Amino acid sequence: YQRSLGVIDISEGPIRWINILKRDRSKDSPPKWWVVMGIPDTIDISGSKEIKIKTVRKKNFPLFGKVVDVVWKGDSGSTGLGSTLSIDQDVKMLSERLGNMEIKSHSNSNNCENCGEKRNGTSSFCVSCGGFFGFQGWTLVFDKRFTPSNKDWGVIWKICDYILSSPRSF
CA 106, CA 29: separation in Å to the nearest integer? Predict the structure, then answer.
């Protein structure tokens, strides 16, 4: 199972918290890490379809090859985020270095978005799975742990700007 190793609260900027998740190794699989960044949004998106896009890293040779291109696939609704992020060279280079990324919208809810468990307190995170309660906004998920450089932070903030300024119709 995956568990939260801790949440880092950030007082300034578009990212307000970072949740570090880990699934321990098992007999058949290595340990897996996720870095989840929370981007609150004041626009209520509960009436619209969930937006979920992720990177597809194209390689010059399957599995072992060098990443030659990065595109965003999935349901971006009317936001146009997939095409916007696919043409940004800085975002492509970040994904080449740091691995797969996923962007997902979240509407304000009292049930965990991952496992469905009902909230039983004031916490924003599900103790069972590390999912979210009552969060309205977006998450940017990296599928491995990393230490971001100043340049990486600049690109991550650029992605946040794309997300928060994206058009949405209801």
Answer: 29
Structural domain that includes position 125: 2-52+102-164
H/E run at residue 21: strand 17-23
| Contact between residue 132 and residue 41 where contact means Cβ atoms under 8 Å apart | no
- Model-level pTM? 0.82
State the total domains in the chain. Answer: 1
> Residue 75: inside a domain, yes or no?
no
Interaxial angle between packed helices 150-164 and 89-98, expressed in degrees from 0 to 180 and rounded to the nearest 10: 120
DSSP letter, residue 60: S
What tens digit of pLDDT does each residue of 15-41 get? 998 989 898 999 999 999 999 999 988
In tens, the pLDDT along 121-140 reads: 666 667 666 666 667 889 99
| 43, part of any domain | yes
Q: Is residue 74 part of a domain?
A: no
